[in-house]
Design brief:
two-stranded antiparallel ribbon; 149 residues; mainly alpha; 2 strands; globular
Length: 149
């Protein structure tokens, strides 16, 4: 999709914003000294596992863009694989609190790749703006949650 095309459906934007709610909720629960919730368990672990899923999901978007756009999205196969494996290894090797901090780096890299896709006309400007806002909110939530005792 080109940045000159009409704005896409509001559904992707709604889903992007809705996807940030567990990050915000997790940070708020930890700020309120709530470390466990019924049925789901440890809030920090819930937040870290959701962060892993979202990080992998975002790398999958780049994989799909490379498949459908070919040269227009060159290099996304490699970067998406490296980021996905790095997220998985960090999930396995780091305690949840450190994983929350680590995740900021891949999220920023993914956003930088999206900026490149915007510049090449692959992403719509409105979608990228939503990604910038939500990535900022998510990173702030992750770092806030990790900073809490």
């Amino acid at each position: 999709m080109s940045s000159e095309n009409p704005a896409p459906s509001p559904l992707p934007h709604a889903l992007i914003y809705a996807g940030s709610l567990p990050f915000i909720a997790g940070a708020l629960l930890l700020a309120g000294n709530v470390h466990s919730v019924p049925v789901l368990g440890d809030v920090e672990l819930i937040l870290a596992s959701y962060a892993l899923v979202i990080g992998i999901f975002l790398t999958g978007i780049h994989w799909g863009l490379q498949l459908s756009l070919g040269q227009a999205a060159q290099g996304l196969f490699i970067t998406s694989n490296i980021l996905a494996v790095a997220l998985w290894l960090a999930w396995l090797l780091l305690p949840a609190q450190l994983f929350l901090i680590f995740l900021s780096l891949p999220l920023l890299i993914i956003l930088a790749l999206d900026a490149r896709l915007l510049k090449s006309g692959v992403l719509h400007r409105a979608y990228f703006r939503s990604r910038v806002i939500i990535t900022s909110v998510v990173i702030l939530s992750l770092l806030s949650a990790a900073a809490l005792p």
